[in-house]
Amino acid sequence: MAASTAAKTNITDEAAMRSVAAAMKDAATTASGEVAAAEPPESGASAMQWLSRITYTGSYVLAYGVVYAAVFVAQSLPQDNPIMHGMRDGGRAAMDQLEDA
Question: Among 11, 35, 53, 61, which one has the highest count of C-beta atoms within 10 angstroms of its own C-beta?
Fold first, then answer.
């Protein structure tokens, strides 16, 4: 019984890792495609829009990669242990404090 559970967990982990890799590849491809397609314009207002778009795209890719990886790691850890209980309680306390502020 334990061996089959471990085998299912390994298969699930491998599938999840493939999913993460595919999502990161898609995000990087989309961002690099947008950056490569965007040529710097000549006028000042257009240049600011171009720079703003490049900054937005870079920030989006960075945030997506960091958040997606953090959520993936958090979900792949065993959920019933003191560390995860502390993380959940700390997250709830932070959300409560933000709501009170």
Answer: 61
Domain range summary for the chain, segments of one domain joined by +: 2-100
From residue 30, give the alpha-carbon distance in Å to each of 8, 33, 39, 95.
33, 5, 16, 33
Percentage with pLDDT > 90 across the chain: 23
Q: Are 39 and 72 in contact (CB under 8 A)?
A: no
Cα separation, 78 vs 7, in Å, equals: 16
> Are 24 and 60 within 8 A, CB to CB?
no
11 or 4, greater pLDDT: 11
Q: What is the mean pLDDT of residues 37-52?
A: 74
Taking a C-beta distance cutoff of 8 angstroms, is the pair 53, 40 a contact?
no
d(CA 37, CA 34) in angstroms, rounded, equals 5
**pTM, to two decimals:** 0.43
Pairwise CA distance, residues 16 & 74, whole Å: 13
